[in-house]
Amino acid sequence: MATKILVLGGNGFVGSHLVESLLAGGARVRVLDRSGSLKTPPMIGVDYRYADLADLPALTEALADMDLVIHLISTTVPGTANQDPIADIDGNLIGTVRLLQKLRNAGVPKLIYLSSGGTVYGDSPNRPIPETHPRDPLSSYGIVKAAIENYIAMYGGLAGFQFLILRVSNLYGPRQGHVGVQGVIPTICRRILDGEPLKIWGDGSATRDYLHISDLMTFITAAITQGATGTFNVGSGMGTSLTQLLELFAQITRKPLKLEYLPPRGFDVRHLVLDITKARRTLGWQPQVPLREGCQGYWEWLQRHEG
Amino acid sequence: MATKILVLGGNGFVGSHLVESLLAGGARVRVLDRSGSLKTPPMIGVDYRYADLADLPALTEALADMDLVIHLISTTVPGTANQDPIADIDGNLIGTVRLLQKLRNAGVPKLIYLSSGGTVYGDSPNRPIPETHPRDPLSSYGIVKAAIENYIAMYGGLAGFQFLILRVSNLYGPRQGHVGVQGVIPTICRRILDGEPLKIWGDGSATRDYLHISDLMTFITAAITQGATGTFNVGSGMGTSLTQLLELFAQITRKPLKLEYLPPRGFDVRHLVLDITKARRTLGWQPQVPLREGCQGYWEWLQRHEG
Q1: Which residues are CB-neighbours of B300 under 8 A, at least 6 positions away?
Q2: Number of other CB atoms surrounding residue B60 within 10 Å
Q3: What part of A 140-159 touches B (C-beta under 8 Å)?
């Protein structure tokens, strides 16, 4: 992997793991992020640039001479996107279209984009969902992600750069924060540690596809090494209900968790399990971390670092 | 049809026909448009308001006390949208999300939106295309229309208003202009009248689904009268290649047309025919104007008005 890679959003949860993984693979890494990582010290050998995605001069400079751009920046999470869809469109959709226009000018030959397998499809009785499934997103977060995917394909065709879109399921793992509702697993653990009640919208039967961060890293490494292009679901391929997840954490932590049941939210997808056949067949990739083991590891990490 | 209806973009090609049709059906009509119609004098009994979609105070006033809003405004056409996608997103997507937020506050119970059957689906070997087909738009125009459809469904669910989305095919008919590349039929006729060459991107084999404006009017009347909601394809259900269309106009006009063949554009859909089974079955609607008759009528109208 002797390439020059720019990671947009390289100091976040996914970004910090990705930069480590790329460095281990022998890549030269540049990071553009709004701020430094809260969870890890700066990594040796990385060219850090501190700027917003909207800072076009800084973006242009960061793109210079890169072989690959991996775009992880999102200015929203599903909850905040729905509260202010115009900020979501402005920050993420317009921000990414500007990036695509700059990519063309900078002559960068390839882009990898982290999309959202959990929101672009919307709700579906068909489980698991393959990449060919219609995209009928229910939330602003998913609507904007789907529109970004479309613009990437359009600009890729017009400008001739290759692209790889990863529709990632619910990620979890070390360094994932509970601030900003990053994920349900950190939130469950935080509530257990603090002895505070957990809010559940619905009856707990909604299913999700949980993927450990290290499995995403092996996917990205395989995809870069094998020169994969197009769109891939990246998930565990298995569904876990919220109730099952809570039982798992009750076993792992041996601590009580208070639950506060609320009516379901209209923009939440009820069931989401990704069909990962394409990734298996095309790349020979397979998730390795069982959910119980990954959750146990997260709980231990959280107690060491934030307990 | 004894309702109070606001038509956003009521002075354009579609809007002027629609306002006539609504008045004939007994509705009370208010129009919000940037400017007056170039093709028709103001209609008696219509409450005209002149403002941009982005003018929120004017929009709020126009929404007051309405039973139905029909949203026809588009600040772009397919060609200009691709030239400046950010203006497309800003004018159409953000403009419509602001409208949706205002609809909620104004308590308007129903919205009808004119989407684009010709661009939201993208290219497909499956012809004709039903409403359930995945939306994989290739152009900014189609990407933004698909995103708008998604936000309408989202806000409709959150705010409890009904919505009807019309995925209309290639419209044509009297009052349609050739400025701004509104449609291929006006452009062909204008080039014939002016004796100028017509640019053809590709070999002329690309097919489209041409619908006469009066057939859209009978659809909208039926849909309002029967209280239809959801998403409908509105087209002729038949495909016509550009070469076939040119032959038709050669017969109708008995005038020569110079052709200038150019390479196909990446963002143009090759084949587009809508499956209109849902509209037929649900509303008993059926297009009535044969293409030859409609084209003959347009040619005569153009010679009378712009020859």
Answers
A1: none
A2: 12
A3: 140, 142-144, 146-147, 150-151, 153-154, 157-158
**What are the chain A neighbours of B144 within 8 Å (beta carbons)?**
147
Which residue of B150, B152, B167, B267 is the best one to mutate when testing the A interface, meaning the one whose CB has the most A CBs within 10 A? B150
Token couple for B173: 């008919």
pLDDT at site A2: 60
A60-77 pLDDT, tens per residue?
A: 999 999 999 999 999 888
User: How far is the alpha carbon of B280 from chain A, nearest alpha carbon, in Å?
Assistant: 24
Chain B interface includes A133 (CB < 8 A): yes
- Whether residue B97 contacts residue B153, with contact meaning beta carbons closer than 8 Å, is answered with no
ipTM rounded to 2 decimals: 0.93
Question: Which sequence spans correspond to the domains of chain B?
Answer: 4-171+210-237+278-282, 177-207+239-272+289-306
d(CA A264, CA A203): 8
In this predicted structure, which of A137-146, A184-193, B224-233, B267-276 has the lowest mean pLDDT?
Answer: B267-276
Where do runs of H (alpha helix) occur along A90-139?
Answer: 95-106
Of B141, B155, B210, B298, which is the active-site residue? Answer: B141
Q: pTM for the full model? A: 0.95
Q: Return the CATH superfamily for domain B177-207+239-272+289-306.
A: UDP-galactose 4-epimerase, domain 1 (3.90.25.10)
Bond into B41 cis (ω within 30) = no
Query: Do A97 and B89 lie within an 8 Å CB cutoff?
Result: yes
Find, in chain A, the residue whose alpha carbon is nearest to that of B93.
A89
Whether A141 sits among the annotated catalytic residues: the reply is: yes
Question: Is-same-fold flag (B4-171+210-237+278-282; B177-207+239-272+289-306)?
Answer: no
Q: Which two tokens stand for residue A10?
A: 């390289």
| DSSP result, chain B | ---EEEEETTTSHHHHHHHHHHHHTT-EEEEEESS--SSSPPPTT-EEEE--TT-HHHHHHHHTT-SEEEE---S--HHHHHH-HHHHIIIIIIHHHHHHHHHHHHT--EEEEEEETTTSS---SSSSBPTTS-----SHHHHHHHHHHHHHHHHHHHH--EEEEEEE-EEE-TT--STT---HHHHHHHHHHHT-PEEEESSS--EE-EEEHHHHHHHHHHHHHTT--EEEEES-S--EEHHHHHHHHHHHH-----EEEEPPPTTS-SB--B--HHHHHHH-------HHHHHHHHHHHHHHHH-
Superfamily of domain A4-171+210-237+278-282: NAD(P)-binding Rossmann-like Domain (3.40.50.720)
In chain A, what residues touch B85 (CB-CB under 8 Å)?
Answer: 97, 151
